[in-house]
Design a protein that fits this description.
- By secondary structure, this protein is an alpha+beta fold.
- The chain has 3 domains: 91 residues, TruD, catalytic domain (Pseudouridine synthase); 83 residues, TruD, catalytic domain (Pseudouridine synthase), CATH 3.30.2350.20; 145 residues, 2-Layer Sandwich (Pseudouridine synthase).
- 30% of the residues lie in helices and 28% in strands.
- The protein contains 8 helices and 16 strands.
- The strands form 3 sheets. Strands 1, 2, 3, 4, 5, 6, 7, 14, 15 and 16 form a 10-stranded mixed β-sheet that branches.
- Strand 4 and strand 5 form a beta hairpin.
- Helix 4 crosses helix 6.
- The radius of gyration is 21 Å and the shape is globular.
- The relative contact order is 0.18.
Length: 335
């Protein structure tokens, strides 16, 4: 991630993030409530230093159901304190005593019946409370960067978690496209890493042109809060007003079959970067991935900050599903 260009210039601070799990807190926002009836139960779970998929497996064992009966909307950071919802299908079964779940690092805080299994991606977003420790640097410049982020947002890069240890998922994707066999579950991670790599490269080029939060000719627009997109079309006063309101965002490619829908300058840039990563682009097309879009701009909602002491800075904000808190932090501090 360090090689990707910054929107706000060199970060004014250096700090330590995740000095303890409590310094990285995440709360999932589903955007809807349990309906109170049905053969599924929605569990509101707090985990500390635990992997989401591991928690799902342990919940299945505890409930005496197959792992496929457990659902969750999104993976959460392991080195953190996170609260999220899991669904467990209990067809014809009574609820176990969730308070006796046998892992100290996991607490079931609430359980409510529901009619459907949670699906991956079925959430509105996440709320974060992060603490930077051992902070050094220019506090006045940091205040300016935070003000800029609050107004302008940050480039919506995929975070380093997407690329595996030392970024190895991209090279593994290249090997897979070259013929190496991989397990089915790992295949989906490698496809995602390949798409994310091309997207980040397009976004980096747009940041270098100072065009990540403004359109290029031939732009495709992402609708805020959805996966829908439209364009290209002339940049009118109506579109300019919607851009200011954050109803729409410039977008970048999630590579797949066929050509990106962008045209003119935006299209030329995306095709140039696709050609520079031709093995990944061809592999994604061969895997029959569709051409999709992702916003280039990320606007943290309700961004707040306060100094806990001379060397500790707390940040809180909400992000939409699929966005990374670490790409907000990277504009402010090297961690």
């Amino acid at each position: 991630m360090s090689e990707l260009p910054y929107a706000c210039g060199t970060p004014p601070l250096a700090a330590r993030l995740r000095a303890s799990p409590e310094d990285f807190q995440v709360e999932e926002i589903l955007g809807y409530d349990a309906d109170g009836v049905g053969e599924h139960v929605l569990l509101w779970v707090e985990k500390r230093g635990a992997n989401t998929d591991w928690v799902a497996r342990e919940l299945a064992k505890f409930a005496g159901v197959p792992q496929v009966a457990v659902g969750y909307a999104g993976m959460k950071d392991r080195h953190a304190v996170t609260r999220q919802t899991f669904s467990v299908q209990l067809a014809g079964k009574t609820d176990p005593d969730w308070s006796t779940f046998p892992h100290a690092e996991v607490k079931v805080l609430a359980a409510t019946r529901h009619s459907r299994k949670l699906k991956r991606g079925a959430l509105r977003g996440n709320r974060f409370v992060l603490v930077l420790r051992e902070v050094q640097g220019d506090r006045a410049a940091a205040e300016q960067v935070l003000q800029q982020i609050a107004v302008r947002g940050v480039p919506n890069y995929y975070g380093e978690q997407r690329f595996g240890r030392e970024g190895g998922n991209v090279e593994q994707a290249r090997a897979m496209f070259g013929g190496r066999r991989v397990e089915r579950d790992k295949r989906s991670f490698l496809l995602s890493a390949a798409r994310s790599h091309i997207f980040n490269n397009v976004l980096a080029a747009r940041v270098e042109r100072d065009a990540w939060d403004k359109p290029l000719d031939g732009e495709i627009w992402s609708l805020a809060g959805s996966r829908s997109w439209f364009g290209p079309e002339p940049f009118t006063d109506v579109l300019a007003e919607r851009l200011v309101r954050a109803d729409i965002h410039p977008s970048g490619p999630l590579w797949g079959q066929g050509e990106p829908p962008t045209q003119a300058e935006a299209g030329a840039l995306e095709r140039e970067i696709g050609a520079a990563n031709s093995d990944l682009a061809a592999g994604l097309a061969a895997a029959r991935m569709d051409q999709e879009r992702r916003p280039l701009r990320l606007l943290p909602k309700d961004l707040k900050w306060r100094w806990l002491d001379d060397a500790s800075l707390e940040l809180s904000f909400e992000l939409p599903a699929g966005a990374y808190a670490t790409v907000v932090v990277r504009e402010l501090a090297t961690v």
